[in-house]
User: Which sequence fits this backbone?
């Protein structure tokens, strides 16, 4: 199985830590939306799409990349994210990204990997930020376990 992890991580590199751990388990390259090419995406059996959450949305370059994919039968995709707060029912950004990936032709894994990340945006920055030390070793162990479940499913 060949895997690829696409990651946009612009605040503190929080999501990149998660992507690197998942990439290690899947033996996959981790590329940014600007580094990845349609050929690399087409060549992988499993592709991960993730970023930090900014203004209740995935990073715009990542969303543009997914929206720009030609719709055709594709392999497996998974979604992962880090954020300051849990996802709210008002704005289901992980579900929306999964929907775009389904539209592009991927079989999207129902399980999403999502953990908190250090957030120094706005007033939180004045007190050193929210979620200090995250993603933590425990978060990265959970990302590792998530990737191992993927491996078990995809062979
Ligand atoms: C401009 C900006 C907007 C953000 N908006 C949200 C948000 O709407 N909801 C949320 O839970 N976290 C929000 N955050 C916090 C980030 O999602 C969190 O810190 C994440 O771990 C950043 O990942 P990164 O270091 O990979 O960029 C925001 C952070 C920034 C810098």
Assistant:
């Amino acid at each position: 199985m060949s895997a690829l992890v696409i990651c946009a991580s612009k605040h503190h590199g929080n999501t990149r830590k998660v992507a690197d751990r998942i990439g290690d388990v899947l033996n996959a390259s981790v590329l940014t939306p600007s580094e990845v090419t349609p050929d690399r995406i087409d060549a992988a059996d499993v592709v991960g799409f993730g970023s930090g959450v900014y203004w209740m949305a995935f990073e715009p370059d990542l969303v543009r990349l997914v929206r720009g994919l030609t719709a055709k039968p594709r392999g497996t995709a998974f979604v992962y994210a880090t954020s300051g707060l849990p996802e709210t029912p008002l704005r289901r950004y992980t579900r929306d990204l999964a929907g775009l990936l389904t539209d592009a032709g991927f079989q999207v894994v129902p399980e999403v990997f999502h953990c908190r990340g250090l957030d120094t945006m706005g007033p939180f920055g004045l007190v050193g930020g929210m979620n200090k030390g995250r993603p933590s070793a425990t978060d990265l162990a959970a990302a590792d376990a998530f990737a191992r479940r993927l491996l078990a499913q995809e062979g």
In short: Residues 42 and 84 are 32 Å apart (CA to CA). The mean pLDDT is 96. Helices lie at 14-26, 38-43, 60-67, 93-104, 137-154. DSSP finds five helices and six strands in the chain.
